[in-house]
Specification:
The structure is a single chain. The chain has about 325 residues and is α+β, with helices and mostly antiparallel strands. The protein folds into 3 domains: about 1-70, Structural Genomics Hypothetical 15.5 Kd Protein In mrcA-pckA Intergenic Region, Chain A (Roll); about 85-165, 2-Layer Sandwich (Pseudouridine synthase), CATH 3.30.2350.10; about 170-285, Pseudouridine synthase (2-Layer Sandwich), CATH 3.30.2350.10. It has 8 helices and 13 strands. It has helices at about 20-25, 30-40, 115-120, 155-165, 235-245, 255-260, 265-275, 305-315; strands spanning about 1-10, 45, 60-70, 85, 90-95, 145-150, 170-175, 185-195, 200-205, 210-220, 225-230, 280-290, 295-300. The strands form 2 sheets. Strands 4, 5, 6, 7, 8, 9, 10, 11, 12 and 13 form a 10-stranded mixed β-sheet that branches. Strands 1-3-2 form a 3-stranded antiparallel β-sheet. The longest helix has 12 residues, at about 155-165. It is globular and about 65 Å long.
Length: about 325
């Protein structure tokens, strides 16, 4: 992907602002989430050095921004079935199936959740990115479960603010390799792009702070069934945290699932894992304050039936 370099000199009036806040003032960025993306992708330098979003800018700092130039896409509506959990004039809560990409990107030009939403409604927010109408947050292609979509700009802004302020309730369920010495725990690290493999994320010195709380629901056959509560929602956060603790998600070959197969003694379960077309991560609960009624809303959806049957056969449910 090509990029366009923009250079800024920090004015006296902006001295002391966090770098991510300073960047959000730029007309081509405008939001902290966009600023965070540029920083975490190593597309921003201050005085020729990569800095964290928390860096406090100084007068006359030279800030370089490499804006990615993406091919403009024509978004088309697609008649793809949607599992709509809730909908009103402001928002839609979707139970996304595994295998469905959230928005178009390189290699996924169509057949995404966005294409399905455009078929379902003409009312989607265009506030932050015209190529991602309505998208407030994302979950990975292989992850199933709940996410909220904004139908207008006001709802979009209010929902994004809740995510940025860490006021959104998110509970995931996952199956990982190995057993845990304690039934509950917490993992903290700074996450950013992997220094070598750009498809992956990792705990790195200049990454963004992240925290995942876990509780072991059950263990069997050298597998553990977990409930995970997110304090932050970084890209690949759960996948990285589990993998770096030597408990990669079952089926997550990018983060080490294949290397753990030999630890499973039950041949039937080994074969089940080899035949998986997804990793076992599900966004089970999503809670937030409604942007206009201010009512606290919590939604819950269990695993898809195919995964329920699989986990029952492994004696994890």
């Amino acid at each position: 992907m090509s990029s366009q370099l923009t250079e800024l000199i920090v004015a006296e009036e902006h001295k002391g602002l966090r770098l991510d806040k300073y960047l959000s003032l730029h007309e081509k960025i405008r939001t902290r989430s966009r600023a965070d993306f540029l920083i975490s992708s190593s597309l921003v330098k201050v005085n020729l050095k990569i800095m964290k979003g928390s860096y406090l800018v100084k007068t006359n700092d030279r800030v370089e921004i490499n804006f990615p130039i993406e091919k403009t896409r024509t978004l088309e509506a697609s008649n793809i079935p949607l599992d709509i959990v809730y909908e009103d004039q402001e928002l839609i809560v979707i139970n996304k199936p595994s295998g469905l990409v959230v928005h178009p990107s390189a290699g996924h030009e169509s057949g995404t959740l966005v294409n399905a939403l455009l078929f379902h409604t003409k009312n989607l927010s265009m506030k932050f990115n015209e190529e991602r109408p309505g998208i407030v947050h994302r979950i990975d292609k292989e992850t199933s479960g709940l996410l909220v979509v904004a139908k207008n700009d006001y709802a979009h802004e209010k929902l994004v603010q809740q995510f940025q302020a860490r006021k959104v309730h998110r509970i995931y369920k996952a199956v990982v390799f190995g057993e845990f010495p304690a039934p509950v725990g917490r993992i903290e690290s700074h996450l950013g792009r992997h220094p070598i493999d750009r498809k992956k994320f990792a705990s790195v010195q200049l990454g963004k702070w992240s925290a995942t709380n876990y509780k072991v629901i059950g263990s069997k056959h050298q597998l553990s069934y977990l409930e995970l509560k997110l304090e932050t929602g970084r890209t690949h956060q759960i996948r990285v945290h589990m993998s770096e603790k030597n408990h990669p998600l079952v089926g997550d070959n990018l983060y080490g699932s294949k290397n753990k197969l030999k630890s499973i003694q039950a041949k039937k379960i080994q074969e089940d894992i080899k035949n998986l077309t997804r990793f076992l991560l599900h966004a089970e609960q999503l809670g937030f304050e409604h942007p206009t009624t201010h009512k606290w809303m919590v939604f819950e959806k269990n695993w898809p039936e195919s995964e329920v049957s699989l986990l029952e056969s492994w004696n994890l449910l």
